[in-house]
Amino acid sequence: MQAKLSDLNPRLLSGKSLDEQMDNAMLLAEELGFDALVYDYSPVPLDHEGKLITPAVLKLRNTPADWHARWCTEGYYQIDPVQQVALNCVSPFVWSYKPGTDTLLEPVISQRHAPVVNYLEDAQMTCGVSVPIHLPRGGFASLTGLRTGNSSVLCDARRTLADFSLISHALQEAAYPLLGKEAHTPPIHLTKRERECLKWAAEGLTAGEIASQLNRSLATISLHLTSAMHKLGAKNRVQAVVRATHYRLLDS
């Protein structure tokens, strides 16, 4: 393919929606021999306990019909070893679920990953390439290309690593302005007033000072702060501010 980023950008930017951009990316990936694509995006990939959060955006092409439900509803995303490796990598990597293959998955896979492994084996999608993309302010995205076929597909995938990486970054550049509209609601939802109170608390104001600032009673402000604490699972206001900041709930 001998792709160049300057050549790929116009093909992907021509898509007016993320779905159109994914369609264009799939056409490019097929030229490299890939059979399916998985794109995910999270403004915050981990919760405050360090566990994977279901992505805010998950786009699929040519995957089994139940893939989205499995990964987003049944918890497969949290036990997908490819996602776990991707989050801790900065470079594209080839992976395989076949035993004895020299890829980054081999030392990672354990019995807890069995549902994902069995699913992909049944779908005959046991090999692929993943490109992790670490974004500003802690966001994370990845594009994974999957291949079907015999053992030779691993060698084929390795040869396409550079070109597939270019496709991934071109897709991310094209998709970035659209992600805010595509993203699902954050894992924790605060009301406008709760966010406002926490923002002032982050500035060091007491509940009484926030009440004066917002021209509300102390009881009302305390109620908003307590509600936010409960939603965030926080023990006190300081912890609530820290967790709200972690989830980027206080962003303007």
From TrEMBL:
SMART domains: HTH_LUXR. Keywords: DNA-binding, Transcription, Transcription regulation. One of its GO terms (molecular function) is DNA binding. One of its GO terms (biological process) is regulation of DNA-templated transcription. Signal peptide: none annotated. Residues 183-248 form the HTH luxR-type domain. It comes from the Bacteria. SUPFAM superfamilies: C-terminal effector domain of the bipartite response regulators, Pheromone-binding domain of LuxR-like quorum-sensing transcription factors. This is LuxR family transcriptional regulator.
